[in-house]
Amino acid sequence: MKITIDRTACSGHARCAAVASELFRLDEDGYALPFDGETPEGLEEAAHEGERACPERAISVE
Question: What are the residues whose beta carbons fall under 8 Å from the beta carbon of 22, sequence distance 6 or more?
Fold first, then answer.
């Protein structure tokens, strides 16, 4: 699985990190940082939870 974050759409609500802190990191202003690489095994559901938590739909999981 690949996680893509549209940083131009992110508004810094940090909901992704609130529900899946093991996957989503935030910058000093609270905006999601890009995710590099594949989703670690066993964290696929957490990736989808982070995707669903984003009110701007700035996260996509493929």
Answer: 43, 46
Dist CA 60 CA 28 (whole Å): 22
3-61 has which fold?
A: Alpha-Beta Plaits (3.30.70)
Q: Report how far residue 42's alpha carbon sits from residue 31's, in angstroms, rounded to the nearest whole number.
A: 25
Residue showing tokens 């508004």: 11
- For the chain, the maximum distance between any two Cα atoms, rounded to a whole number of angstroms, is 29
Q: What is the pLDDT of residues 4-51, one digit of tens each?
A: 999 999 999 999 999 999 999 999 999 999 988 899 999 999 999 999
